[in-house]
Amino acid sequence: MKGKKNPHVPHDPTKGARMKLAFSTLGVPGMPVPDVARLAAGAGYHGVELRAHPEEPVHPGIGADERARVAAEFRDAGVEILTVAGYVRAAQAGPDEPVLTGLGELLELAHDLGARNVRVFPGGGEQSPEEADATAARRLAAAAPRAADLGVRLLLETHDSHRTGADAARVLGLVGHGSVGTIWDVMHTWLGGEDPATSYPALSPYLGYVQVKDIASADDTTPLPLGEGVLPLTECVELLSREGWDGWLCWEYEKRWYPQARELPELLPAGREHLLRLLTDAA
């Protein structure tokens, strides 16, 4: 429920629409966990999205002791692990078993780290939309009870074969389980030709959080500092604020795929200030 503003209470820009800020470790490839935790805390971010890949310090192959150390590092720094960002493709062609095994491993990792979410991709490839939808929904529905038992949510990102809100909503509507939702990657919905006013209503019943970023153009997706590109970040934040949404904004800066891009740590303070300005203006 939306509350009315009290004119006698000074405005706190960090509250805005009560959104919290995170960044993805895709922007700091290979950075040791203690450094990530210190970076997030020092730059004023509430959480991180941990890229779960064998080339990173955190992935499903690490053991119980290392999982406990990772959880402790972030807990001691006062930084939340928002998501374990895995690379399972829910709709990929082939048998279900390897996909379900991968989902299970990511869910266990997230639980052990105290993370609230697991990120998955669609990955429908060359299948028809109907076939890809059914495949992804079947697998996500099969994994949902385990996710619920572990207190972790599976989030299907708007990406690749399902880059728009309408695409993701088709799958999530078939799943129909509260432990399965979505990540709104604002770049992919924009590249898919969908404006925020269309994306949000499609995704809102399932929305876990929003990935923000900026790029120069549809033809040049090299990551830029927030506010220096063409993505409709202002429109997104205004819409989320107007709707009273109180979740997370996570900056996904794709340094891993664009080594020529500027270093993320030097950009984090200004990125935080940019998002807080958008929240203040939208409040």
TrEMBL record:
It comes from Streptomyces hygroscopicus. This is Xylose isomerase-like TIM barrel domain-containing protein. Transmembrane segments: none annotated. InterPro entries: IolE/XylAMocC-like (IPR050312), Xyl_isomerase-like_sf (IPR036237), Xyl_isomerase-like_TIM-brl (IPR013022). Residues 38-269 form the Xylose isomerase-like TIM barrel domain. Gene3D superfamilies: Divalent-metal-dependent TIM barrel enzymes. It holds the Pfam family AP_endonuc_2. PANTHER family: HYDROXYPYRUVATE ISOMERASE.
